[in-house]
Specification:
Blueprint: E1 8-11, H1 21-30, E2 35-41, H2 53-59, E3 66-72, H3 80-85, E4 90-94, H4 101-110, E5 114-119, E6 137-141, H5 156-166, E7 172-176, H6 184-190, E8 194-197, H7 199-202, H8 211-225
Parallel strand pairs: 1-8, 2-3, 3-4, 4-5, 5-6, 6-7, 7-8
Helix pairs in contact: 5-6, 6-8
Bound molecules: D-xylitol-5-phosphate (DX5) and zinc ion.
């Protein structure tokens, strides 16, 4: 897969109908989603529990494109193989999840997935300075992780710093949390290319009426592409 730095919209299924994951993934992709973002939460690293590798394996056949798995869990390493076997294209671990993020990224790539590292709002960009050759994606949290529908926390300075650190390396900058038509231009202007959106994509639609998904994706994409360089 060649490196694509164009704007990509990655709906988070944390905001989807939990009784209909497979159909929701297919619907949101049919309505224009570029990636599907899967928020795994363990109730320990974050104060919420969502789903695990079994759910990822179950939805994999319903996702034609990229399955982007965001692990909000600690520890990470014992579960990497299970998520890779479930078909994750990207597996992202939090730099705050343990003392050995360097080894975790090696293990993710060793399991055959692309490696992502996520930074909570309080974590500086410099924390990934020694990880750039092991990383395919940096996820900048613009909410404190655990829940959808939270208020956007502006991390533009961190995104700009990361953009400068990355240079021309093939590393995606992903924004996660509170992304909608208003906040998308802020982060695109700063240099992010993957925009995760849960509530802003799934609002107003359903598997039986997915058209709002498409309208929401189009609005977010247009707002971002209008300023993205
Ligand atoms: C939060 C998750 C985000 C969240 C995004 O911990 O990592 O992906 O689901 O949801 P919205 O777009 O509603 O903020
Ligand atoms: Zn996420």
């Amino acid at each position: 897969m060649s490196f694509d730095r164009n704007i990509k919209i990655a709906p988070s299924i944390l905001a989807a109908d939990f009784a209909n994951f497979g159909a929701e993934c297919a619907a949101v992709e049919a309505q224009g989603a570029d990636w599907v973002h899967v928020d795994v939460m363990d109730g320990h690293f974050v104060p919420n529990i969502s789903f695990g590798p079994t759910t990822c394996a179950a939805i994999r056949p319903h996702i034609k494109g990229v399955m982007d798995v965001h692990l909000m869990i600690s520890p990470v390493d014992p579960y990497i193989d299970a998520f890779a076997e479930a078909g994750a294209d990207f597996i992202t671990a939090h730099v705050e999840a343990g003392p050995h993020i360097h080894r975790t990224l090696q293990a993710i790539r060793g399991a055959g997935a692309k490696a992502g590292v996520a930074l909570n709002p309080g974590t500086p960009a410099e924390s990934v300075a020694h990880l750039l050759d092991l990383t395919d994606l940096i996820c900048v949290m613009t909410v404190n992780p655990g829940f959808g529908g939270q208020k956007f926390i502006d991390m533009s300075d961190k995104v700009k710093t990361l953009r400068a650190m990355i240079g021309d390396r093939p590393i995606h900058i992903e924004i996660d949390g509170g992304v909608d038509q208003k906040t998308a231009p802020i982060v695109a202007q700063a240099g992010a290319d993957v925009l995760v959106a849960g509530s802003a994509v799934f609002k107003g639609g359903s598997v039986s009426d997915p058209a709002p998904y498409g309208a929401n994706i189009k609005a977010i994409r247009a707002a971002a592409e209008g300023v993205y360089v």
